[in-house]
Amino acid sequence: MSTFVITLKEKKPAKELLLKLREAQTPILNCDLVEPLDNRTDNEDSNLDISKEVFAKQSNFNDIKLLNPALARKDRQRTLATWLIPFGFIAGLSFSQMTDLKTFANMGFPNPLEKLLGGLVGMISGALGSFFSAGGTNQETLDDLRVIRKKSEEGYWLLILELPIEIEPPWEILKETDTLKIINIRKQ
Known about the structure:
Elements: E1 2-8, H1 11-23, E2 30-34, H2 42-45, E3 57-59, H3 69-99, H4 114-133, H5 139-153, E4 157-163, H6 171-176, E5 179-186
Parallel strand pairs: 2-3
Antiparallel strand pairs: 1-4, 1-5, 2-4
Keywords: Membrane, Transmembrane, Transmembrane helix
């Protein structure tokens, strides 16, 4: 999917833009309206009617995984842990069974627990692997996120549109709207 972050001065043009996109039957997979980090403009737009069929979600900047690398990293860690911890247990158990080492028996543990302790060491290795391998974000994405955060701190609203990868956004409609900047972030 392709993700476009559109910066707008106010909430009202975001609603109008989304209505135009829906009228043009643009296939939108997900849509988020993100309020500014410096939310001084909220009072002037608080009486604006935003119905559920217009916006799927109105969110805070720090609650969106796309804009907050720490949330995305935690999600990747959880996903990796669900696979690596059980795999580590099985691998540790198998290694203890195949090698018949007496590592833990030599340390004073009972001999029947040798294989189980090998599995537990494998589980710990899987947990550590999920923690360290879920690490980073590429520099290009971090630069885009820095620009987006700065716009949000300046009081601009962000409209995040996720479109299917093969669909090009309707640039004519986007040019008609009072958009400040459109940033394309490709998800992998």
